[in-house]
Amino acid sequence: MTSTSAAARRTPPRLLVVRNDKLGDFMLAWPALACLKAAEPQPHVSVLVPAYTAPMARLCPWVDRVLIDPGEGAERRERRRLLAEVKGERFDALLTLFSTPRIGWLGWRAGIPLRFAPATKWAQLFYNRRLVQRRSRSEKPEYRYNLALAEALLDELGLALPSPPTPPYWPLPDAERKAERRRIAEELGIDSHRPWCFLHGGSGGSAVNLSPAQYAELACRIESHLGGAPAPVWLLTAGPGEEGVAEAIRERIVSAGYTAERLPSRSGLDAFARSLSAADLFIAGSTGPLHIAGCLDLPTAGFYPARRSATPLRWQTCNAEEHRLAFSPPEQAGEQDMGSIDLDAAAKAISDLLQRLAMAATSVS
């Protein structure tokens, strides 16, 4: 397919977008997916994701169909099943946001005519359209790299983009957020009129994060900086196997005399993600839940290591700038020396954000 032929027939193209790694990576693809669906004529957008992130893909308003990637170590029959499914969809274009030889080979074997990916590593040999990005330099946010690929694909297809989408990239209706808040308030018997600060102390097995003691100290310091502002309710969230971390943080906050509860467990990633919409502020390391909160355009405070590939700029949340705070060790510290982060300075910035949010809510009401 060429941009000329696509423009001539003006039929909505069928696109397959691949981001088949971790949850946070997939959430940072939502701005690119929103960009694709904003084009005219509106494409049919499918995504190829692992089973783990499939519940979020099904919630994404910019996705029409979800295909499951069985992964690198899949048995031969599973690989053949995926190839047959991709062939059967008769896609016009493949957009791989993170290029791998296996996916490039899949697109080529499936006969997808336009195959677009970043021009990185030898996997690019399977693609007939490429965009040089040099992501390893971490010069801009990951979601911006993804957006650049989506925009380049639309240009290649000859599709118009009337106006780029803006946050929230997960525009959950306000009624659904309020319902989640009522549900949690009833489950825990907490005051829904106080600010709710969600705090996720887990790391998802990949991100370097603050320790439970540091997170508890951060919460206490935030409380001390609030002055006469309403005291928050601290809600501790946890992924599978991270319940002990959440409980350790909760116990320390409660022992300091503040209100803290564990967010009730939810059956499935999709239900957990919806529950996050009840937050007034979300605090976490650079993990999947932080990026879910970013897609919801919730105010966020993220804690990042000093490693070049994991900087606050590279893994910036995709919420509005005024809703976003980020903290990392000073330049002279070690890459993963999270103990060198100035917790009092972070607490002051977060408390200032909470007070601004409270003032804004008061002015609206």
TrEMBL record:
Recorded hits in Pfam families, A to Z, give:
Glyco_transf_9
* Classification via CDD domains: GT9_LPS_heptosyltransferase
Q: From the Swiss-Prot or TrEMBL record, what is one GO molecular function term?
A: ADP-heptose-lipopolysaccharide heptosyltransferase activity
Q: Give one GO biological process term.
A: lipopolysaccharide core region biosynthetic process
Can you list the GO cellular component terms from the UniProt entry? cytosol
Q: Which UniProt keywords apply?
A: Glycosyltransferase, Transferase
* Organism domain of life: Bacteria
- Report what the protein is called: ADP-heptose:LPS heptosyltransferase
Report the source organism: Halomonas campaniensis
What lineage is on file? Bacteria, Pseudomonadati, Pseudomonadota, Gammaproteobacteria, Oceanospirillales
